[in-house]
Amino acid sequence: MEAKTLTDQAYTRLREDLVHSKFGPGEKLGIELLKRTYEVGATPLREALYRLSADGFVQVRGQRGFRVAEMSLEELEDITNLRVVLEGMALTESIENSDDAWESRVVAAFHHLTKAENQTEPDIQEWESRNREFHLALVSCCRSPWLMRFHEILYDQHKRYRNMARIDRSNRRNVHEEHIAICDAALAKDVKALCAANEQHIRRTAEITSRILAENQEE
User: For residue range 47-75, what is the model confidence (pLDDT) as tens digits?
Assistant: First the structure.
């Protein structure tokens, strides 16, 4: 049980750091360095790295060890398309199974997100947390474990690209208006409008991320 606990801890911490771009694409993930960084033994780390490779965050290079998964505009497009489809399925099922408790979760999460977005000097970490809370509340009545597993992977893969691109939140995009449209459609139980608003939201993020990644590649 202890080994499993250590593996879970290593997996969670490593995944969080990979999503937040603390390791660059293609960077070698040496076991000795990771042992010092996370203060965990080699066995739990290797098990965590193999789990992360199954999620697409780490690449296993045979005898050459582990590296951070590479990134590309083509992969971002693929992740975006899959997220639109699978999140649309999760939203549809969640609405179909929704109840008063679901509505309360969505309203509370949107309220917290609105407060984070309306701050004079937004706290990016708080915004990220509240944004995730809102999107998870929307799909919280989806009863398919497999769908939710893939939803989580695609959400974090998309987030990894967004973080790597270092999107300037001072641009003219009004993310709060996008969230209002999503919330209104969800509370109205209008599945078609909800999926459309959510797709526009995801693709707008991907569009900005793609542009910044392309500019970075040209530098």
Answer: 999 999 999 999 998 777 999 999 999 99
